[in-house]
Amino acid sequence: MTEFFIDEDFPCNQVEFEERFNTEQACRDYLANMKWPDGFQCRNCGHNQRWISAKGLYICTRCEAPNSLTAGTVMHGTKKPLTF
Hints:
The protein has about 80 residues and is an alpha+beta fold. It has helices at about 15-20, 25-35, and strands at about 50, 60, 65.
C-alpha cells in the first residue's frame, strides 16, 4: 500500500478548514495551485495562457482546449459547488 502525505499547510481542524475554504473562489484558487503549482499549463498543447469560461473551465488561448480544475479528482464531473 502506498503511503499518502500532505506536505503543505493544510487545515488541521474543521474550523480552520471552513475559514480557508469559505468561498467558491477560495476552493478554485486552491485547486488551481495544486493542479498547476508553476502556473497554468494546457494538458493538450502545454501552452501557459488561458481564459476562464462562464462555467469555470480554463480554456487554452492557443488550442482552445478546455481544462477542468476538478478533472482527475473526486469532484470530477460533478455539478455540485465546491463549497458546502
